[in-house]
Write a structure and sequence with these properties.
heterodimer; A: alpha/beta; Rossmann fold; 2 domains; eight-stranded mixed β-sheet; four-stranded antiparallel β-sheet; globular; B: MetI-like fold; 11 helices
């Protein structure tokens, strides 16, 4: 089998309280492992606070992971020196959730788009401008945007600029952190379609973070369901939606609104909130809200088991999850 | 319309918009005009004024204002107007240079502090706290008595005194900036410290720096005057507004030769006031909330 572009093993991130205060350590990620094959889109879904963004940022070392390996093209990024990491950054880019915060208010769009090329010392000034203009065209923005400032654009346009910025460096891997969720619903579809088109046309490999299950189903090849910083289920997208095995995934899928009013649906409502990652439950972290939890669930951390080729779940209640 | 070059407000960059707001502020414009007039006079006086600052006219001791000596003469027959102009040069030179020095120190200390780890940051900030808690006048006197009098020591003393507040403001702004998505994006593209500091840090601190510099120039003029008044700043025969006031502090001069202290005092007050108006105007112009108007 071909080596995956990105391979994450045992990624763990604990946030320690600042200064001398003795607050509890926040366990944002606990032993997360997955692969992102070349040219594929892997989706990360989960509630707020489930560690989606922390994974995205740890993978690019925008947040330093506490332990674990992040292999990119076979190189373990966590072991690289700052200078070596800077060179690798050319091949991996991040798309931010909030298009109003991710563009500098003091730079023109042209400066924003050429910034990465300048940092990585790619080509001459003219070549950089050319590449930035090509990126602008790829996201369907007019060329006269080049001289303007970010505040002159709408949210959807700004997000296109953000996408163009990450494309300008021609990266191999793009981490898209909820690229559509800060936008209007009508614009969301445009941005998601744009990403989908670009992904297919440029053969991009993408880690797509979202809490919108419908979008994830549409754009992703593989989906990872996260809960409290742990992987609950990992499966090819059609399989996950057709045959969810983990009780948490089932609850999530039953919560997707269905536009067909004639269709009867049984919604499975989870009680309570996601527990605090500073004090996670013992054993299976989902047991406090799981309708099938039994005593055994508190004792063992459920391992990620393969239930069918490429489909993994972390649940010991095989009799209910199948 | 009469201005074909006018660009719609939304097409301009943030600095251009701030300046656009500045020119609608009347008090600030008045301050700027007064300051420019004073500056021009100070810089060009040798071209159009007959006397030099240290030229002694023994036939005119302690003479009041007249056609030949507009602002009168002092106790040894030197022309007060010429000394006032020369004093303005020295006062402004000291103020501008010391503010420039403290801007550089303040920005760099703030930058180092915000980008380094907890220990270094903590150590630097405690040092800054210490520097801010020391009574400024006493510190000033101690420093001045160590380094002595003259232009360079005075500049050194004033710059050493005024950077801590700025470094705190710069640090606070940079700490906030560090977490902003566009800075994270630059890091994600592989930006090093230099790029982050000068492409993102400095442009986003420009409002703090400009406002601080203007208000601090007024402050530095006063500090210089204070030091010179106490005999620790600019030493005679070199003129400065402070030592002109110092020379005129005896009771007899205060009562009988009003022009010897009134003009330097007036020049000091007018200049400081004008610069303060400009500083206030700039502060309002850079306030992001004023965008809403």
């Amino acid at each position: 089998m071909e080596e995956p572009l990105l391979s994450v093993r045992g990624l763990t991130k604990h946030f320690k309280p600042a200064g001398f205060s003795r607050g509890a350590v926040v366990r944002a990620l606990e032993d997360v492992s997955f692969d992102v094959p070349r040219g594929k889109v892997v989706g990360l879904v989960g509630e707020s606070g489930s560690g989606k963004t922390t994974i995205g940022r740890s993978v690019l070392r925008l947040v330093e992971p506490t332990s674990g390996e992040v292999r990119f093209n076979g190189i373990d990024l966590t072991k690289l020196s700052a200078a070596e990491m800077r060179r690798q950054r050319k091949s991996m880019q991040y798309i931010f959730q909030d298009p109003f915060a991710s563009l500098s208010p003091r730079m023109t769009i042209g400066q924003i788009l050429t910034e990465g090329l300048e940092i990585q010392r790619v080509g001459t000034r003219q070549e950089r401008t050319q590449r930035a203009k090509a990126a602008l065209e790829a996201v369907d923005l007019p060329a006269d945007a080049f001289e303007r400032y970010a505040h002159e654009f709408s949210g959807g346009q700004r997000q296109r600029i953000g996408i163009a910025r990450s494309l300008a460096l021609e990266p191999q891997l793009i981490v898209a952190d909820e690229p559509a969720s800060a936008l209007d619903v009508s614009i969301q579809a445009q941005i998601v379609n744009l990403l989908r088109d670009l992904q297919i046309r440029l053969g991009l490999t993408m880690l797509f973070i979202s809490h919108d299950l419908a979008v994830v189903e549409y754009i992703c090849d593989t989906v990872i369901v996260l809960y409290l910083g742990r992987i609950m289920e990992l499966a090819p997208s059609e399989q996950l939606y057709a045959d969810p095995r983990h009780p948490y995934t089932r609850a999530l899928l039953s919560a997707i609104p269905n536009p067909d009013p004639t269709k009867c649906r049984t919604r499975q409502i989870l009680k309570g909130d996601i527990p605090s990652p500073a004090n996670p439950p013992s054993g299976c972290v989902f047991r406090t809200r799981c309708p099938y939890a039994v005593e055994r669930c508190a004792g063992v951390v459920p391992p990620l088991e393969e239930v069918s080729p490429g489909h993994f779940k972390a649940c010991i209640r095989h009799e209910v999850s199948g | 319309m009469s201005a074909p070059a006018a660009i719609p407000a939304s097409r301009r960059g943030p600095i251009a918009r701030a300046l656009g707001r500045f020119v609608t502020n009347r008090m600030a414009l008045l301050g700027l005009t007064v300051f420019i007039v004073i500056l021009m006079a100070i810089l060009s006086y040798p071209l159009w004024w007959a006397y030099t600052p240290n030229q002694i006219d023994l036939r005119a001791l302690n003479k009041g204002p007249s056609a030949s000596h507009w602002f009168g003469t002092d106790g040894v027959g030197r022309d007060v107007f010429a000394r006032l102009m020369q004093g303005g040069r020295i006062s402004l030179l000291v103020a501008v240079t010391s503010v420039a020095v403290s801007l550089v120190i303040g920005f760099l200390v703030g930058a180092v502090s915000s980008f380094s780890g907890r220990v270094v940051d903590g150590a630097i900030m405690r040092l800054v706290d210490l520097a801010m808690t020391l009574p400024p006048v006493i510190l000033l006197l101690v420093l001045a008595s160590i380094v002595g009098t003259g232009i360079v020591p005075t500049i050194a003393v004033i710059s050493l005194l005024s950077w801590p507040v700025l470094s705190r403001m710069v640090r606070a702004r940079l700490l906030e900036l560090r977490e902003r998505d566009f800075v994270v994006a630059a890091r994600g593209m592989g930006a090093g410290m230099g790029h982050l500091l000068f492409r993102h840090g400095l442009p986003n601190c420009i409002d703090i720096l400009v406002v601080y510099a203007t208000l601090q120039i007024a402050n530095a003029i006063l500090l210089e005057a204070g030091l010179s008044f106490l005999g620790l700043g600019i030493a005679p025969p070199e003129a400065s507004w402070g030592n002109m006031l110092n020379a005129a502090r005896s009771t007899s001069v205060l009562e009988q030769y009003v022009w010897q202290w009134m003009f330097p005092g007036g020049a000091l007050v007018t200049t400081v006031l004008a610069i303060n108006f400009v500083g206030d105007g700039l502060r309002d112009a850079f306030d992001p909330r004023s965008d809403l108007q």
